[in-house]
Design brief:
Helices cover about 50% and strands about 15% of the residues. With about 160 residues, it is an alpha/beta fold. It is globular, with a radius of gyration of 15 Å. The C terminus is likely disordered.
């Protein structure tokens, strides 16, 4: 699946979810969890339980040592995840493990674009472009970061089209 196809899949899957919810006259239940908090294994258990308990979209955060602007609760969760070895790579693996057990749940990753560029972006796109993750919410994207010349820059440009 190309990255542009991945974006279309993301849009179609969420559009279908929200259209169904509108038809049912109900709201989508979106839950946020910090990936690998308090541990990878416990995080996987929590995410699977949330999916089975009615969550429509699992938003999984990836830890950042600079999460102070997120408030004390997310900052503390991020610190716990980092202490437990949580990383962007582990969160991508966590999302894949959730997907193996639950094919229906929508999964969106949440984090800072700087982590994605350091990962690097082409590895991030490859890791999340397998139908596991349907979207990425990126925080604090500056014009400078958008213009960074990265390997496979066409993927970075396509990634920027998500508009988050």
């Amino acid at each position: 699946m190309s990255f542009k196809d991945h974006i279309a899949y993301f849009n179609n899957r969420l559009e279908h979810l929200f259209a169904r919810k509108e038809h049912e006259e109900s709201l989508a239940f979106v839950t946020f969890f910090m990936g690998c908090d308090p541990t990878y294994k416990k995080s996987l258990s929590i995410l699977l339980e949330a999916a089975e308990s009615g969550s429509d979209i699992l938003e999984i955060g990836f830890a950042n040592s600079e999460a102070s602007s997120e408030g004390p609760i997310i900052q503390t969760a991020s610190e716990r995840a980092l202490k437990a070895g949580g990383s962007l790579n582990q969160v991508i693996k966590l999302a894949a493990d959730v997907r193996k057990k639950n094919k229906k749940i929508s999964i969106v990753l949440m984090g800072y674009i700087s982590n994605i560029f350091m990962y690097p972006i082409n590895k991030f796109v490859e890791g999340t472009n397998k139908g596991t993750v349907i979207g990425h919410i990126k925080r604090e994207t500056s014009n400078i970061e958008r213009k960074i010349n990265v390997e496979n820059s066409h993927k970075a440009e396509a990634y920027d089209e998500l508009g988050y």
